[in-house]
Amino acid sequence: MQLFQDLYAKLNQQQQDAVNAVEGPVMVIAGPGTGKTQILATRILNILSSTDTQPQNILCLTYTEAGSTAMQKRLSQFMGADAFKIPIFTFHGLCNKIIQDNPEKFSRRELRVMDELDKIDLIQSIIEALPPQSLLKSYQEDAQVLRRNLSKLWDLMQSEGIDAKQIAEWIAYVSEPENFKIAFPNSIYKVNRGEFKVGDIKPNDYDKNTRNWARALEAANLFQTYRDTKQQKGFYEFADMLEWVANAFDSDEELLLDNQEQFQYILVDEYQDTSGLQNRILHKLISYWGDEPNCFVVGDDDQSVYAFQGAKVSNMLDFADRYKNALNTIVLTQNYRSTQSILDTAKSLIEANQLRLINQMEGLSKELIASGDNQHHPAIEPTIDAYNNEFHEAIGVGQTIKQLIDSGETPQEIAVLYPMNKHAATLSEAFDVLNVPYVIHRPTDILNETVIQHLLTWLEYISLELELANSGEHLIYKLLISPLYNISSFEVNQLSVDIYQQRSSHNKSGETYSWRKHIHEKLNQPEQGDMFNTSPSVALRELWTNIETWIKEASWLTVPELIQSLYSKGGYLAYALKSYEQEWVLEVLQTFMQFAIRMNEKNPFMKPHEFLAIVKKMTNNNVTVPLEKRIGNAEGVQLITAHSSKGLEFDHVFIIRANQSEWEDNDTAKLPFGMKQLLQGKEIKLSNDTSVEEDIEERRRLFYVAATRAKKSLHFSYNLKKITATKVSDAKPSSFLFNLGLNVPDTATQIPAEQLLFTQNALLGRMSKPILNVDKLDWVKSRTANFKFSPSTLYSILECGLKFYFTRIVRVPDAPSPAAAFGTAMHAAMKFWVDAWTKDKKWMSESEVVMQFEKEMYRQRHGFNEKQFKLRMQQGKDLIPLYYQARSSEFRTYQLVLTEKSISAVIENVPITGFLDKIVFDGNRATVIDYKTGKPDNSKKKSTAPSARTTDNVPNPYWFQLGVYQLMTNNQAGKSWDCNMAIIDCVEKDENGEFPLIKLAFNEESNQIIRKWIIEANRRLESMEFMNGCGKADCYWCGFAKSTEQVVLIPKDGVDLDA
Q: What's the CA gap between 1030 and 768, in Å, rounded?
């Protein structure tokens, strides 16, 4: 075969040795740039030319589908159509083929692959079926965290072959006090402390672990339920395929033998990235040949970067040990990519890793040698630069790249590598300023795009109005204020206030008043033109006509048809065509439409609310509608993550953000329910488990992969400062920089003065607070006249001015809250119980209290969807009997109690009014009690008193609000009430299964703090400082104001824009 001879002649001696080793076990350790892909293809050609083996008897296993496709394509260039006779699969693809070819052996003809949404529904159904006493019981409509934790545990049990019985045995062993002491020496007192002696177990540590393990055991016992339910529903997962085939190979000798006889030669690419289960299947397939299987594995332990997906470097060591008597080990060291100076720097880096094959296998050397054309490139030493912050770094790197391009270097041959996709944002902004062409390929979830979020809000509004008139009222403000429409913020704000005032007066007469009614009246009344009362704009008139049409048509249009109508009449296409990202926005809209069509094909009669339920489930669980977003010029500098760069190469590589927090921190290996502690305590080593040292070595390997992408020059940079939305702090360089054998500077590289404007604007965008851009200040001022605070509005103006502005000045409608509606029903049941005893001396039975709760739930029905109502109703019926038992003896001692008491007072000349859940009296001593139906742990955090160091910070909300109520109670005209105690009564079990009472004691010192903040709240009202937002990254109202373009940005106090 002349073609093979031609290819073979181009190989170096090491590569030829690998190709010639046709028989027996062969392990090729192929460093970066050593041509491993070429030898795989050439070796297949050699097998075909030197033996009588047929193409279908050679099995090639790759790590990814892309790898399989690339290998088939490469072989087809040499073999033509015969290349497609060679079985080239991923491990999952091979297992799927075996199952499809042998349906009678797997009895799974009716099964289909379980997608992410199927899995979410299945696990959620298991959670909802749990009894009330379950440690895992959740009444959330979408128990995301618990569901993810269950999934993690069950995946672990499946991949490691662990069952619930084993976990129970481990827990019993480690929970024994003496064993616990040995397993967790840090949980033992080292000195005498109070009642505890040296060597005693710290109770909190012991209780925390054993509580977690109790939940772990219950979760483990549910694994079989999960598997049974999955089978009943006709589902299977990709991991199941691997397990089924591995188990079938163990139990079905005929099946195993058929596959062993078919595949006489097996080649495995990227062997370092195989998992324990994949390795088990491979060894079964080649076991037929004893100690000398015709198995050829290629990999590089120094490039293993997928431990988070189950990959394990030790598989290579295990292979070498298993076949040590016949193994032919070949190391490829001739590098055809990088200059020697780059290879030497990379070598210095990776030698810091101890868990390498060369440290565990005798006679191995992996010292890479520049060969071919790259040895003739100029010897440019790699460099490290320090920058003041990420913005300076982006400018500095951009300037260097601009100089390279100006000197004649090709932009596509320059790459900037970073650990995470988010790091591209600052770079792209800087490159725009510098006119450096670039391209970013980034997977984007279109459901998070602003234009789709707004579209989904329209669909939600129409869906709610279709179900019940005026039930979507809370969404109209957010829809009208959108930049999509030429409706002024003042017009929408005035509408909101007018409707709130009209609704208040109509409610007194028992009538309802809605946005739809009000706008309809406005559209039909004579034109007006006074300062604060204008006629509706043309834009509002046009949009409202469409809204009424959409609500009518939604009952018969399909979801895609409704979306199409919104696109054309709702301003989306016009908005896209005017956008500076026109092509991207149009692509997003098209992708969303395709998604809606696919969902409609599954359920042709799907209603808008069903479609929205799917979307909500997806967004809550990080299930995406992906779209590859290509930003910039296709012929520009490549901006990509280090993981995505594997297998690529560039003339010039810049590795940025080389800080400890960016490259070394890794949370992917966390296990739920205290399993990590249990496994450590029992000294159990999982096949795919990694120690702290292994974790850091994998991160170093990723850094190594990034460094070895460079052909001509390599540049590293890190930041001296880390900037977040709330602070500037010192940043540590990555320890990897100190492994490079290069000088690590500790002073910042200066950037050109003319580029400081970019860094100032970037800092302003990062560390700013929004201020309202309002042209009707007199109207806003008029809304503050005679304003009366409540404890909650006092807190909102202190927490964020914009939250106060939108909720209390503009009166943006509140969305119905299931948590609030449930809380209202529980409060009503408590009031009924307490009032019956303290006022009528009638003791209510447990069932009567439950019945009162049920009545109130039906009154609050508008606050729930169907599923939420069912879950919350069950929650109350489960909790009230337990709460009733816990509080009965206490409630019987009450003599004088006021419930749901309206209360007003003037404190520091500030009028305040509020509504108390309960005041319990003992003589003239009063205790304020507030019911909370949320998680007790959250209530504890929110009720923590300020410390001496935090008195300048806004206090925690529950502590502050109850403190205000306590002051108001002491300031009642004509009353001699004495109150220095408030209690949060948790109507929800804590992790110990109890209903905590959180007691808050107030004294003169704490009251002074509360008074100070009341004065500050009033100052912000009178000065209209509430026009300023807090600027916190997670603040909903600041984000809302920015997204609707109602604000300008100003620096936060103390922010130096030249930092």
A: 9
The confidence score (pLDDT) of residue 2 equals 60
pLDDT of residue 1057: 42
Chain centroid to Cα 51, Å, comes to 53
DSSP 1026-1043: GGB----TT-HHHHHHHH
CB atoms near residue 435 (< 10 Å): 9
Q: State the average pLDDT over residues 693-721.
A: 92
737 φ/ψ angles, rounded to the nearest 5 degrees? -60, -35
- Round to whole Å and give the CA distance between 490 and 545: 21
Radius of gyration for the alpha carbons in the chain, expressed in angstroms and rounded: 34
pLDDT tens digits along 465-477 = 988 888 888 999 9
Angle at alpha carbon of residue 684, lines to 679 and 686, rounded to 5°: 95
Containing H/E element for 931?
strand 925-932
| pLDDT tier at 993, thresholds 50, 70, 90 | confident
CA atoms within 13 A on the CB side of 712: 13
Q: At 781, which amino acid appears?
A: K
pLDDT in tens, 544-559: 888 888 988 888 999 9
Distances (CA, A) of 752 to 29, 399, 756: 46, 9, 7
Residue pair 522/487 in contact by the 8 Å Cβ criterion? no
Token digits for 657? 């953000």
Q: What pairing do the DSSP bridges indicate for beta strands 414-418 and 626-632?
A: unpaired
Beta bridge partners of 899: 918
Name the 3-class secondary structure at 988: coil
What mean pLDDT comes out for the span 18-30? Answer: 92
Counting Cα atoms < 13 Å in the Cβ hemisphere of 963 gives 27
- Helices vs. strands in the chain: H and E counts, helices first: 42, 28
Q: Please tell me which of 350-364, 430-444, 792-806 the model is most confident about, judged by mean pLDDT.
A: 792-806
Percent of the chain at pLDDT > 90 equals 49
Q: What's the burial of 135, exposed, middle or buried (CB within 10 Å: 0-12/13-18/19+)?
A: middle
User: Are 31 and 335 in contact, with CB atoms under 8 Å apart?
Assistant: yes
Determine the Cα–Cα distance for residues 963 and 955; give it in Å rounded to an integer.
10
Confidence tier at 365 by pLDDT (50, 70, 90): confident
Instruction: Find where tokens 């489960």 sit.
Output: 878
SS3 312: coil
Secondary structure letter of residue 636 according to DSSP: S
Q: Which among 809, 687, 787, 672 is positioned nearest to 136, based on CA atoms? A: 672
| Tens-digit pLDDT profile for residues 782-797 | 888 889 999 999 999 9
β-strand pairing of 88-90 with 334-335: unpaired
Residues making up the chain, counted from first to last: 1059
CA 929 – CA 918 distance, rounded (Å): 5
Q: Confidence class of residue 1055 from pLDDT cuts 50, 70 and 90?
A: very low
Which two three-digit tokens encode residue 750? 């200066």
Distance CA 636, CA 413 (A): 9
Nearest residue to 246 (alpha-carbon basis) of 95, 417, 436: 95
pLDDT digits (tens, 9 = 90+) for 147-190: 989 998 998 888 777 899 999 999 999 999 999 988 888 999 99
Q: Where are the alpha helices (DSSP H) in 407-537?
A: 424-434, 450-467, 473-480, 489-508, 515-524
Q: What's the pTM value of the predicted model, to 2 decimals? A: 0.78
- Confidence check: pLDDT of 268 > 90: yes
Q: Rounded CA gap, 887 and 881, in Å?
A: 10
Distances (CA, A) of 1039 to 447, 450, 484, 765: 17, 11, 17, 12
In the chain, pLDDT over 70 holds for what percent of residues? 93
Please tell me the predicted confidence (pLDDT) of residue 1053.
53
Torsion angle defined by CA atoms of residues 165, 170, 175 and 178, in that order, rounded to the nearest 10 degrees: 140
Q: In what order do the strands lie in the sheet containing 414-418?
A: 383-387, 710-719, 650-655, 414-418, 637-641, 438-445, 626-632
CB atoms within 10 A of CB 665: 12
